[in-house]
Amino acid sequence: MPSSPKDLWTDAKDRFGLSRPEMFELYNRPFLQEIVDKRLPVKFTENPDKDEGYLNDEYLFLGEKGYVFDEDTLTMTPPKGRICIS
User: Fold this and answer.
1) From CA 48, how far away is CA 9, in angstroms rounded?
2) Mean pLDDT for the stretch of residues 58-71
3) In this model, does residue 15 exceed pLDDT 50?
């Protein structure tokens, strides 16, 4: 039985036969897009720029949407002003 969030994620990935990119597209992207649409800040628990997994994928996705990362607070904030995000 999975005991940590990482174990739960791996268990779901394996159970449904999904690759890492497929898991990101299916679960992370819609959640992140909702955050972008609502222009909410994102607080990371560790520096995503130094991560080689999903945290870095999330960091890159938000950066593509104009979010700015503050390394001191580990927070990404939405762009200022009104812009079109595609």
Assistant:
1) 18
2) 96
3) yes
Is 48:75 a contact under the CB 8 Å cutoff? Answer: no
Residue 80 has pLDDT above 90, yes or no: no
Task: Give the pLDDT of residue 2.
Answer: 54
What pLDDT score does 81 carry? 58
State the first-to-last Cα distance of the chain, in angstroms, to the nearest integer. 40
The answer to whether position 83 is within a domain reads no
Query: Is 63 a domain residue?
Result: yes
For 19, 22, 33, 34, 56, the CA distances from 79, given in Å and listed in that order, are 31, 27, 14, 15, 19
Contact 75, 43 (CB under 8 A): yes
Q: Residue 61's domain spans which residues?
A: 5-77
How many CB atoms neighbour CB 52 within 10 A? 7
The number of domains in the chain is 1
State the pTM of this model: 0.80
